[in-house]
Amino acid sequence: MPLLSSLEGISSTVFSNTFIELPYPEGDLSGQTIIVTGSNQGLGLEASRHLLRLGVEKLIMAVRDLKKGEAARQELLQSTSRDESSVEVWLLDMDSYFSVKSFASRAAALPRLDALLANAGLATNTFSISEEDEKTITVNVVSTFLLILLLVPKLRESASKFNITPRITIPNSALHYIASLEHLDPQKEGSIFKSLNNKEASNMAGRYPLSKILVVFGVRALADQLAQSKAPLVIINTPNPSFCKSQLARETDNVGLRVSEKLLARSTEEGSRALVHGIMADEKSNGQYLTNCRVHSPSCIVTDKKGVLIQEAFFKELVTKLEKIATGVTSCF
Length: 333
What we know:
- The protein is an alpha/beta fold.
- It has a single domain, classed as Rossmann fold (3-Layer(aba) Sandwich).
- Helix content is about 45%, strand content about 10%.
- The chain is built from eleven helices and ten strands.
- The protein has an eight-stranded mixed beta sheet with strand order 3-2-1-4-7-8-9-10, sandwiched between helices.
- Helix 2 runs parallel beside helix 3, helix 2 crosses helix 9 and helix 7 (about 205-225) packs across helix 11 (about 305-325).
- The radius of gyration is 19 Å and the shape is globular.
- The chain starts with a helix and ends in an 8-residue tail after the last helix.
């Protein structure tokens, strides 16, 4: 665990949650279609409520369990007094590449797509392989970027047709400050994912923070890659809602986490404001880590010499992996 980075992350979280109240989302999303993954509970549900309140024309709730998704849909409709047609529930299992590809194919038929809030995530202390990678990496990283790249063509099409700037937001965490990059060797070609899938070398207590720093690397690299295209700009950012009461750690039994949650955590609703801000943020947020609804520098281990090398090596491996999963998916570069 990097000491200086960890101290910065901890102090930032305590300060933010003690002294800063996130701004209540305001704006006009009328006419827009937005997808929110993991939207039947927690931050995704509360972010969806804000989006409906702000007038989004069509909200696509992407969920693993259609029954739970429909129950959440009814609760949202009741609390926002929106018309039944304003919310749809679609099946999406981020633990399955087939499900991700099927979902993206369905989304390609939408009349328009303005934004994606890729909120679905996992935190677990149990090592298991899903598809071809450790499950946390599959859900939080590989499938997330697979979904994003599959949707970029539709987002760009909507940008051209409706004169909009599409947005992609992936929630992050100050826990990325405590991520250990010790076992990731950027000099050894093709070794990043092999290291992540080594059960003996994996510290699962630190796996969620590690997945979040990989998201930071991915967002920074993807923003740079997409910006080189002559196609319409697609903004991608990764906001930190800070420590919140949520269902994310449903697979953990950490007593300390539960106690800290009671003492320090923001409400789920307040945390969701950071995600809505990300969805509504302008070009200045592109490729950026956000905290307290502002662009903020990520951990120093992201931007130091080793971090830069890891970002390059990781993104190269990720792109190769995604192309194997869905041939042609990287043609948006």
